[in-house]
Every structure is written in C-alpha cells, then in structure tokens.
C-alpha cells in the first residue's frame, strides 16, 4: 500500500476549476517532485493535502486512512507536515522555541499543569528542550538555539522551518519551493540536507520547486501539472523529454 494515495482530487473556487482529476501515489521513503508553470495548481495541491483547502472532489488516503477534508491539526497529527514558499517562522521566538512549537503535537500537558508549573510541566519542557536541540544539531543550528529566529540568515531560516516541520514526526514532508531565494552554494547544501533527512528520518518527501536542476538532481519521480491537470509523470529524463511538458514551459502548441 502506498503511503499517500490521491484519487480524482479536485477543487473549484466559484467557477474556476483550480485542480482537476489529480491522481498520485507516494511510496514510503521516496522523494517526489511536483512541478509546473506558475499558476499550474501546485501550492493548491499542497493546501488540500494539509487541510488548508477542502477538496470539492476526490479522496486523500494517508497510510490507509481517509483524511479528505480534515482540518490542518488533524492532518498534522496523522503524519503530514509542510514548509511554505514564503518562510513562516515565529520571528520573535528563539530558534529553539520555534522547533518546540512543532513538538507540541506529541508532548502535551494540561492548562493547569502549565499555569501552576506542576512537576510534569518541567519534565515535559526538559524533554522538549532535549528533542529540540537534537533536531537543531542535525541542521547545524544548535549554536543559534537562543537567538531570535529572524536573526538567522535566509538559508538557515529555511533549515529551521524544515526542522520545525520534522518536530511533528511526520510520515510525509511537503516542501514548498525550499530553494527559493538561495544562492548556488546554499542550494547545493540544501540538496544534501534533503537527501539526509529522507534517509535519517525514513520519511517520504514531496517538494515543489522551480529550479529544474534542483528537481532533476534530487527527485526520484516527478509529476507535472498544467492548468490544474497532470500532463506527465515519471523519472527526470522521462519528464524532461515529454513534448507536453516542453510545450507547457515554452509556450508551444
């Protein structure tokens, strides 16, 4: 059974059909790409997979459970985490505190425990600090743990957002244009980081990216959208040489 199975998925906004008849399978432990021209519907697909939008048709099955139409919190608990095209960190919180936000779906305590600082509060805070620092070390951010998140350079903010997503212990990680705004050195480092994350955490990854060299160099399977519909799916070489893909990007017939 595939980790994620998307069947006939679609969404309409008024009279506009933004995504239509999307079928896609993601296997455990693999790295997938979702590409297409601007406005093709890529981020809309991510928003449906993560509960930001409710599909108007179709089904989303995660690890055997139908999660179609569930809210973002329930989908996160079920095992899907994401990053965003525009970085969304809690700027005034520290680097470590940002990661701890992601841990709250696993390590919880009641309101009264937090208000009165009962013993279990301190033990769970200690556990979150420990696990948060472990994640920061993986991304080379442990020395910046107590700095405000907005003081980090752009590339490290991208890594922090990924660390926070991984703190939720996902089965599937969605990366929305992770290399956006990065210089070539940062992009090369990010490719190695993503490969490491896949192997270390044993998770599947689905990413959106406009940098074709990045996508072709890292993804094992690529799905191409145009006007909300799949026009091609396969390996990098298969997609690169597909006439429909060439036409979509170059504006041919």
Task: Look at the structure and name the CATH superfamily of the largest domain.
Answer: P-loop containing nucleotide triphosphate hydrolases
Q: Strands across the major sheet, in which order?
A: 6-7-8-3-9-10
CATH class of the largest domain: Alpha Beta
Would you count the extended β strands for me?
10
Mean pLDDT, all residues = 90
Helix content, binned percent: 25-40%
Beta content: 15-25%
State Rg. Answer: 19 Å
How many structural domains can be distinguished in the coordinates?
Answer: 2
Helix and strand composition category: alpha/beta
Query: What distance lies between the first and last C-alpha atoms, to the nearest angstrom?
Result: 38 Å
SSE arrangement, N to C: EEEHEEHEHHHHEHEHEEHH
CATH architecture of the largest domain: 3-Layer(aba) Sandwich
What is the 3D form? globular
Q: Which spans have pLDDT < 50 for at least 5 consecutive residues?
A: none
Named CATH topology of the largest domain: Rossmann fold
Please summarize the sheet with the most strands: 6 strands, mixed
Helical stretch tally: 10
């Amino acid at each position: 059974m595939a980790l994620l199975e998307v069947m006939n998925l679609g969404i309409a906004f008024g009279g506009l059909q933004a995504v239509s008849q999307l079928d896609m399978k993601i296997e455990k432990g693999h790295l997938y790409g979702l590409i297409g021209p601007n406005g093709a519907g890529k981020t809309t697909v991510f928003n449906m997979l993560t509960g930001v939008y409710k599909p108007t048709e179709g089904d989303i099955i995660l690890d055997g459970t139908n999660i179609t139409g569930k809210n973002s919190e329930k989908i996160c608990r079920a095992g899907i985490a994401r990053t965003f095209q525009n970085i969304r960190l809690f700027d005034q919180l520290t680097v470590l505190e940002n990661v701890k936000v992601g841990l709250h779906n696993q390590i919880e305590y009641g309101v009264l425990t937090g208000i009165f600082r009962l013993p279990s509060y301190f033990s769970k805070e200690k556990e979150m600090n420990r696990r948060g620092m472990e994640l920061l070390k993986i991304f080379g951010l442990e020395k910046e743990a107590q700095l405000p998140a907005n003081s980090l350079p752009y590339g490290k903010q991208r890594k922090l957002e990924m660390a926070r997503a991984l703190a939720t212990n996902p089965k599937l990680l969605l990366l929305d244009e992770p290399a956006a705004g990065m210089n070539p050195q940062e992009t090369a480092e990010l490719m190695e980081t993503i490969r490491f994350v896949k192997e270390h955490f044993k998770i599947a990854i689905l990413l959106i990216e406009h940098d074709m060299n990045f996508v072709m160099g890292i993804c094992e399977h690529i799905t191409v959208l145009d006007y909300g519909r799949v026009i091609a799916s396969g390996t990098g070489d298969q997609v690169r040489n597909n006439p429909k893909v060439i036409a979509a990007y170059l504006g041919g017939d």
